[in-house]
Request: fold
Amino acid sequence: MSATDSSAGIPAPAPNDTNRRGPLAEVFFSLLRSGTFLTGLAIVMFWVACALFGEHFAPYDPLADDIINALAPPSAEHWFGTDQIGRDVFSRVIVGSRDILTVAPLATLLATIAGTALGLFTGYFRGIVDDVISRILEAFMAIPVVIVALLAIVALGTSKTTVIVVIGLSFAPIIARTVRSAVLAERELDYVAAAQLRHESALHTMFVEILPNVIPPILVETTVRLGYAIFAVATLSFMGFGIQPPSPDWGLSISSNYGMIGGGFWWTVLFDALAIASLVIGVNLAADGVHGAFND
Reply:
């Protein structure tokens, strides 16, 4: 096919800029060669395995109390000790990954979908649409996520669904800003002009032509937001507005036991805090690996 459609004089569409997208195989093999990505992935997959199968290899019921053995220090019987009502801390850490690895990824997915749609619209239409939506998003981003979450949860009630929606919508403007920047650059390229000359609809141009070419920054931003979402879920649970008892959720466990630190019972908090930190580190390492693979 020639560079110009002979029947209408319209530039033929580029082959969807396949070369510009970067061969997915090269990205995949780059990730496999990335020690940073593989380390992060191993950490995350460990906690995913705990979330899925933790109840099968946890030595004790994470919800069963044993007042006689309350606040027992780490030992061969209780590797991470017990909390103030005798529940095995090791079992609670293992099983406690389930809620946070359900809520945080779903909130991140919601943020990615909403943010991508907003970023495509503002970047593609520009003008008054861009100005109005961007100003609203900037005003929304000026308010700390935790404050927005607390206000929404107080108004709507505490539940996992509310936490997912609140965190997802709180992070959507940040992703929208990243997508908008990428779309503004893509909009000026020939394949977009060709789609417009073919009288493709705006939705087709945005979601079929442009979206595949802005996937790399979306993936990077999504992995970064996942780390922040984990912290946000843990923070809300710690404050009593996130995941509710009797869940062995890490943030909730820290909230229930942090008063014990002053009495020397450090194990009731330390291992849950280390679990949160390790998961966030794993996600961030994976995000760095993804970013590096797309920029090689």
Summary: The radius of gyration is 24 Å.
